[in-house]
Write a structure and sequence with these properties.
129 residues, mainly alpha
Length: 129
């Protein structure tokens, strides 16, 4: 017998917008954006967009702050994944670099490119035997 999932699905946007009108009428919290995001299980940027569709005023400065925070979290997660891969001993490479030696403070990789490595690890400028 299948086990029932305790995870509730997030309603689609049209249904959320209808439910949100009722929710806004009874919401007593301080931060409507965070409350909306938590109640309807959406991210903060989606909550901002949908609240604006419902004529709730959300400042541009608040939205920019959320975008900055989200970008910083994504950058931190990417850096963490890179470090984990390096610690696990997995080969670190991508479609440009055959070996990634590290990353700049801006997040750009550096190392040996596939072109520099040549075929079979032999430099392409090496004279033919």
């Amino acid at each position: 017998m299948k086990k029932k999932s305790t995870h509730k699905q997030t309603p689609k946007r049209p249904q959320r917008l209808l439910l949100a009108k009722q929710w806004l009428a009874v919401y007593g919290g301080k931060n409507k954006v965070r409350g909306y995001a938590k109640h309807f299980r959406v991210d903060l940027l989606c909550a901002i967009k949908e609240l604006r569709l419902l004529d709730v005023e959300v400042s541009i400065a608040y939205e920019n702050g959320i975008k900055t925070t989200v970008a910083a979290m994504e950058k931190k997660q990417l850096k963490s994944e890179r470090q984990k891969n390096e610690q696990d001993g997995e080969p670190v490479h991508d479609d440009v670099f055959a070996y990634i030696a590290g990353y700049t403070s801006g997040g750009a990789p550096y190392g040996l490119t596939w072109e520099e490595m040549g075929q079979d690890g032999i430099s392409s400028d090496a004279p033919p035997s």
